[in-house]
User: Fold this.
Amino acid sequence: MIQAPRGTFDVLPEEAARREHLESQARRVLSAAGYRRIETPAFEATELFARGVGEATDIVQKEMYTFDDGGGRSQTLRPEGTAPVCRAYIEHGMHKLAQPVKLWYLSSFFRSEAPQRGRYRQFWQVGAEAIGSAHPETDAELIVLLADLLDALTVKDVHLRISSLGTPETRVAYRRELTEYLRANQDALSEDVRARIEVNPMRAFDSTDPRTREVMREAPKLLERLSDADAAHFGAVRSLLDDAGVAYELDPTLVRGLDYYTRTVFEFTSDALGAQSGVGGGGRYDRLIEQLDGAPTPACGFAAGVERMLLAAGELPVAADVVDLFVACAGEDPGANKTAFELAHDARRAGLTAQLELAGRSLKGQLKHADRIGARYVAIVEDGTTSLRDMQSGEQRETAARNVIPTILRGHWQL
Ligand code: AMP
Assistant:
């Protein structure tokens, strides 16, 4: 038996209904704030992620599905959505539009990670990007929008952590200071952290090793090294969140696994999830567009995992499948089949939901099936005659086939 690849999953109809609910909530929350939908290709030039996400990141070093497209070009299944959206912004000259350009997506992403609950190799994210605004209101608005979405989806036990990474210049100086600190304490660091001191010293804050954590408690924090302008920006974001009543924890060790962030970074977690507790996060990436050969353009965004939001959500209102009409056929001659087929088709064109018998059941079997799927009415087409049965009252009347749809639309028999 051929099975779905490891780390992937099928979305069966019951789950599809919950995902549709999530999508409609995302559309409602984001379009209310002026975000418009964008779709980018499932794969991109590998260089986009190498430059956009960062060579030193786990994503680029270990997690990308990269292939040769047959023409000697290296392509990669998208591991995240921000770099592709920025590529599209530049490619389509969106800097000429009124700024900021606010875009959202719900797309699948691919990362070659060890699968576990809440961590898959193909997963979906709802993301939003506001490109072309440096204002702290943009950062705060995105955080509030994601909080609203999680709230609308009844995601349980949510916590928000925020921090600021400053500008790349501040980070360069800070990075030097941190690298020196790590080197001075390297004997107490775990092997993997020690091996990556030069490549990515910030990741030391993510370590779960107890001795490393002890060292990191005393480590210099970037938040204490911010420039005045960066500190003022962060202060403005915080006060907007305070005014909006959004609770957050200040986490100076918050490091996101992507290199492009500047200034504000944030992450929502849920205690209802296991080890993979990150529900969604994002931040400001003022240098990314420039890094991808666009004009210097400040921007900010978030991405939230669809599967994790659904894992941590309470019961969601999922619309029941409505069947207005089931067309049963009990006739022997081909004319009856034709009438039944046309009746179902006409009913759908009139806006009803209608199903046709497709399994060759006996009339008794068809009525049982109609009852099981919750059909409101059953039309029974026989040779030369048609009857309509109201499944709620059990009343059945013979009627011309052309009267079936008007009767259902009217909701009662013609007197
Ligand atoms: P990131 O792009 O890494 O910041 O991820 C944003 C969100 O996407 C996370 O908070 C998760 O909810 C979700 N996510 C990231 N990687 C995976 C994965 N491998 N499987 C499922 N969800 C993921």
